[in-house]
Every structure is written in C-alpha cells, then in structure tokens.
Amino acid sequence: MSVMITCPFVAVGGAYDTESAAKRQDEITTGRDMFKTSRLGLPRPWTSPNVAGEMANERLRAVLLERGVSIAELADAIQVDPKTVERWITKGRAPYRKHRYAVAAHLGTDESYLWPEALTREQVASASESEIVTVYPHRWAVPRDAWGRLFAQADEEIGILVYSGLFLADDAGIVRMLSEKAAAGVRVRILLGDPNSSEVAQRGADEGIDDGMAARIRNVLVLYKPIRGRKNVEIRLHRTVLYNSIYRGDDQLLVNTHVYGTPAGNAPVLHLRRVIGGDMVSTYVDSFEKVWDQATPIES
What we know:
Blueprint: E1 10-12, E2 15-17, H1 18-29, E3 47-49, E4 55-57, H2 58-67, H3 71-78, H4 82-90, H5 97-107, H6 111-114, H7 121-130, E5 132-136, H8 144-152, E6 157-161, H9 166-169, H10 172-183, E7 187-193, H11 198-206, H12 212-223, E8 233-238, E9 244-249, E10 252-257, E11 269-273, H13 280-294, E12 296-297
Helix pairs in contact: 3-4, 8-10
C-alpha cells in the first residue's frame, strides 16, 4: 500500500531545491506499508528499523523484558511457533487478531499499545465505548458498596488519586479494607494534594472553601495514619492541577470528573472496566502513573 503526499519544495539559499524535494517525496512514497509508517509516511514511534531495514516492534520487545517472559515462553502460552513470535518482534509483523488478544492478555497490557495501527479507529472507539460500565451524574449518587467492590475485587493494585478524598479516608470500613488488602499483598498507592501547594489553594478558591481544601488534606493524613508505613502501602503528595480524581482496583476505575466551580461530590463519575482493544482505562492509568512519578513520598 503506497501513500501519495504532495510535499512543498525546499528553499535553499533563496531558491527552491526541486531535486531535494523530489527525493524526499520518493522516500515517503516508496515501499511504505501501514505497519511500518504512519498515515503521513513517517516512521512509527513504536518501531525501529533493524539491520535489514525492517521495522522492529520495540514495544513488544520491551514488555517481554519487563515481564521477564522469553520468546519461547510466550510462544508456548499462546500456542504458536517461537519463530512466529520472533518475526512479530524483529520484523514488526502484525499477528492475527486472536493472537494479538492472547499476547495482550498473557502480558497484561493492551493490544492497542503493542500494535497501535492493527486496529481501525472504529474498532478502538467501539472497544473504548465498551469500557464504560456506568455513568453517575454525581459522586454522591455512586452507591457506597460500589466503592467497596472496587477495592475488594483488586488482587494486584489499588490506586487513589485525589486532592483530599475525605469521604474515603473518613470511612473506617474502607481504611480497614485498604489495610487488609495491603496485608494480602495488594499494592496500595494513594496520591493526595500537597496542602502547601498553590494548586490546592486554587482548587479551594474555585470550590469556594478557600483554606478548607488544605485543611481537609491534613485531616486525611491523620485518618490514614493507621496504614502509613505498612508494607505495600505508599502515600505521596502531588502538586498537579487535578482534572479528574481516579480510583483504581486492578482493571476497573471510578473516575470523578472535575467541573469548575463545582465540588467534586456534585461532579459526574465514570465507572470503567478495561476491555482489550480499548484505551480509555489506559489513558487514566497512564495519567495516574505520571502524577505518581513526580509526587513526593511522605514520611511514615
């Protein structure tokens, strides 16, 4: 499949260099296929050329290394020849969809991350729509047991990204559940707003409570004291402009959107569940990780 793009001539020393422009157009339109180049004929950021000029899938290679999974082990798990897996990596070949599903599930990642161009926009949109379980018009409309189920079903990861999240910290049952989950080996990460930050001060002003937001965070730090310093529990302070509060239990999220001038409790909440091929859950999880990486750990 070739992509024809009309490129402007390149100006050199005040004149148009038609030879360079023609050469550049040849480079763009010659031998490009959809899995090696973008729609503009540019190299995919998730691939890199090997010595033969073929595009290797660096994302798949990296995930295998991160998970400690060998090519032979992956091939055995999804019942294909190891040489087939090797071609997916070194030559950037796109597997059949059933194999993409199997690889993504086995490695605990998203099909759309490993093979961004293997799914059409319509397929990604459809899968992402399927990730929406429920939309609540307000946070206070979320049933209390929905919060409990979110954290109770987690076997690997619980994440909380808020400014204060006082309604959770003030619930002794939720705090006890976080403690029990951590004791069972679940990683519990909590991100609170830095009470001394300008971002928290601004959010307090936006919601009409001024210093009340910082006071809530300090109160939450006290309420979380019983689990601070526990194995598998980490609490950090962040200084970001919070567009959404994120509550995670493995592959399920409750996302509290924020609306200017409206308290978080009155803003809508999305209940999301990861679906292979979708990227809504991944978008919010990636946002959580970015905040986590720049946040400051608090002392026990």
